[in-house]
Design brief:
about 120 residues, mainly beta, 7-stranded mixed β-sheet, 4-stranded antiparallel β-sheet
Length: about 120
């Protein structure tokens, strides 16, 4: 099995910054795409940013220029540096990874999610 563990959420005033981390562990053969989604109260989960297996980093328009995603492949970890935060960034942030893992002697490819970390942006 594969586990994703997030950290770094919290409360901050508008204009502030936070850094989220997500580490993957388990019977990992390789991690393909890895990134972040978020879900605000009463809204559907939405994609925020992804670091692709091809080395590209892609952002949702709403966070472009404010959020920076970085990936440490050696540690199976991804970071989301969030700056100039706005109240509308308030949400539970979920790490997501497309992982090839080893189970029962074979390689499997599955999507995995972290448990979520809360980010609150308010005065």
């Amino acid at each position: 099995q594969v586990q994703l563990v997030e950290s770094g959420g919290g409360s901050v005033q508008p204009g502030g910054s936070l850094r989220l981390s997500c580490g993957a562990s388990g019977s990992i053969v390789s991690i393909l795409d890895m990134g972040w989604y978020r879900q605000a109260p009463g809204k559907q989960r939405e994609w925020v940013a992804v670091a692709t297996t091809g080395g590209k980093t892609i952002y949702a328009e709403s966070v472009t220029g404010r959020f920076t995603l970085s990936r440490d492949n050696a540690k199976n970890t991804v970071f989301l540096q969030m700056t100039r935060l706005r109240p509308e960034d308030t949400a539970v942030y979920y790490c997501n990874a497309n992982v090839r893992s080893l189970r029962y002697g074979s390689t499997w490819e599955n999507d995995y999610w972290g448990q979520g970390t809360q980010v609150n942006v308010s005065f």
